[in-house]
Design brief:
The complex is a heterodimer of chains A (about 170) and B (about 425). In chain A, about 65% of the residues lie in helices and about 0% in strands. Chain A is mainly alpha-helical and about 170 residues long. In chain A, helix 1 crosses helix 2, helix 1 crosses helix 3 and helix 5 packs across helix 7. The longest helix of chain A has 27 residues. Chain A is globular, with a radius of gyration of 18 Å. Chain B has twelve helices and 17 strands. Chain B is globular and about 80 Å long. Classes of the chains: A mainly alpha (about 170), B alpha+beta (about 425). Chains A and B meet through helix 1, helix 2, helix 3, helix 4 and helix 5 of A and helix 1, helix 3, helix 4 and helix 11 of B.
Chain lengths: ~170, ~425
């Protein structure tokens, strides 16, 4: 990566969009419940990246810069659209969602019931199949913090699902 | 291993991220505990559902096409030397900016963050703010922003944040928490509030003077006398404006010249001069070791910084043996978990092995101030050859785990 030209468009080689998309999407999705808003936010992040890529001190700073830019874009989206409302796109197609028919939107809605700090590590792990060390480096926290957040997130989801199933049985 | 600890580790077990010793303990416990086995089955159910998370179909392709069709997509740097580009431009523009800064443009600072600048952000422990004269609002700058600041920028650190800047003259400036400066030129800085440390580059000079608070803000800040500190090549200095008093220190062998209103007051090498609002001047020796304690969390931002090891060693040697060392230990403890990380890094460094006393002091303090951010390092140190170090590490791990369990129980009972 150090020697590669900073092109963000489709090229013969895997583009930087392709390389960073999943991580940036996980960050935006952890802040924005609407899938379309998250996708728009990711695109806006890369568009802003084009305008400022030549100010980077080193290509190794790309990750931190994309992360910071994406955070600002999400703040702008939330301010502009007040998008805090869950908009399921496919839920209406299934009368009673079961595990097999659970959509991505429904899963993300479940994750959005977690505190914001716990959402991103979960999304990174499943969207990008990242290791704990990779997540720690991207987010900028200790590996033990990633471990703790993933563990808390999974246990909270476990308790939510148990509580949901008990409610369904009543 | 008890059930609480096992269940804490099940998530990492599912991801195959456990260390060998923890893996054995978990599997051994699972083999004989139906409760934990049930929890594991429930976590597996969560896992099966979350595995369906995927990126939207063709999202990457859509993003690539949007980017490729953007009108500015043909902007690529002409020079593949990443470090030289901003500073080539800054070096050329600095003289122009200095001329502009001397023109009477009123009180409004120049636009905040641009590619051309008199200083750049090198590292920071958190966010800063820069004053935008267009919106007349403070704008947030993240620790990861590759910001450069133009002449006239007013900059301040948030509470608890320490940052480092480098001017285009290669002079280093470090701002303590809640400090505020105005960057007038590469060789001219104004201190508004808080504590600032600086080291003037070789063959350069620096002028530091007082500034009043932003007139657009309501303030009850005491008017300070006009003071100017002239620092020559290689000078290391510190300026603190707190509660109306200004404390200026010369921390290296070079002296600096302080002008207070109209009279001259040299600050000799390793000397401290305190100036009250009514111009009462006091001189005493500067405590060179204490001067850098507040910078420890910042020095730890760059893990390869040898300056950090030197600062820690000179502090730790005094701790436990002198009265000054007692006060310095209190200052280090006040840094909290942010100070524990660099102490643990020092204990793990090769350099510390040749100074057992300092190593022991660092471990003692860090074991009492570390939180979960230091767990990884503590686990590594729990098998240190030095039994005292290993004992401190194990005790710290137990304390942190206990605190985490207590916090979770409190959260559950509050729900």
């Amino acid at each position: 990566m150090v020697d590669r030209e900073p092109s963000f468009g489709p090229t013969e080689h895997p583009s930087l969009v392709r390389e960073w998309y999943g991580r940036v999407y996980a960050l935006c999705r952890s802040k924005l419940r609407c899938a379309s808003d998250a996708e728009d936010a990711v695109q806006e992040t890369f568009l802003r990246a084009i305008r400022g890529v030549h100010t980077l001190r080193t290509p190794d700073a790309m990750g931190g810069w994309l992360r910071s830019t994406a955070s600002h874009v999400c703040v702008d989206v939330l301010r502009r659209k007040h998008c805090d409302v869950y908009e399921p796109r496919e839920m209406m197609e299934v009368a009673e969602p079961t595990h097999d028919h659970e959509t991505e939107d429904e899963l993300v809605a479940l994750i959005h019931q977690l505190p914001e700090l716990l959402r991103e590590p979960i999304l990174l792990h499943y969207y990008e199949d990242m290791t704990y060390d990779q997540i720690a480096q991207w987010i900028g926290v200790a590996r033990s913090t990633v471990n703790e957040r993933l563990s808390k997130a999974r246990h909270q989801l476990r308790r939510q699902l148990i509580s949901q199933e008990c409610h369904d049985e009543l | 291993m008890n059930c609480d600890r096992c269940q804490e580790l099940l998530s990492a077990w599912l991801d195959e991220e456990l260390a060998d010793d923890e893996l054995q303990l978990v599997e051994s416990h699972l083999g004989s505990c139906a409760t934990c086995q049930r929890v594991l089955d429930e976590l597996r159910d969560v896992e099966m559902r979350l595995r369906k998370l995927t990126l939207p179909v063709d999202a990457i392709t859509r993003a690539e096409q949007a980017v490729a069709s953007h009108p500015t997509n043909d902007v690529t740097p002409q020079n593949n030397s990443w470090r030289s580009i901003p500073w080539l431009v800054a070096a050329l523009a600095a003289s122009i900016l200095f001329l502009l800064a001397t023109l009477d443009l009123g009180d409004q600072p120049a636009p905040v963050v641009q590619e051309i600048g008199v200083a750049r952000l090198v590292r920071s422990t958190g966010e800063l703010e820069a004053f935008d004269p267009v919106t007349e609002q403070w704008r947030l700058i993240s620790a990861h922003d590759l910001a450069t600041f133009s002449a006239g920028t007013r900059l301040r650190t948030l509470p608890g944040v320490v940052c480092e800047l480098e001017t285009s003259d290669r002079t280093t400036l470090r701002l303590d928490a809640s400090a505020e400066v105005v960057l007038l030129a590469p060789s001219h800085v104004q201190v508004v509030e808080g504590q600032i440390w600086g080291c003037v580059a070789q063959d350069q000079s620096l002028k530091v003077d007082t500034a009043q608070a932003n007139s657009s803000e309501t303030t009850n800040k005491t008017e300070r006398p006009l003071m100017t500190l002239s620092c020559s090549s290689g000078a290391e200095w510190q300026w603190a404006n707190k509660k109306g008093e200004s404390v200026i220190q010369s921390l290296a062998d070079a002296s600096c010249q302080l002008t207070i209103e109209t009279f001259q007051c040299p600050v000799n090498a390793k000397e401290q001069v305190s100036v009250s609002p009514d111009l009462d001047v006091q001189r005493e020796s500067a405590n060179v070791q204490s001067a850098k304690i507040w910078q420890i969390p910042l020095l730890a931002v760059d893990q390869t910084d040898s300056e950090l090891e030197g600062v820690l060693e000179s502090l730790l040697i005094q701790i436990g043996s002198t009265k000054a060392g007692f006060f310095q230990e209190q200052q280090v403890r006040r840094l909290g978990p942010a100070g524990a990380i660099p102490l643990l890094a020092y204990v793990q460094s090769a350099r510390s092995l040749s100074n057992r006393a300092a190593r022991g002091q660092a471990m003692r303090i860090a074991s009492e101030t570390a939180d979960e951010t230091g767990l990884n390092r503590l686990r590594q140190l729990s098998s240190d050859e030095d039994q005292a170090i290993a004992k401190y590490a194990k005790e710290a791990i137990e304390r942190i785990n206990r605190e985490q369990v207590n916090r979770e129980q409190r959260e559950i009972s509050e729900r």
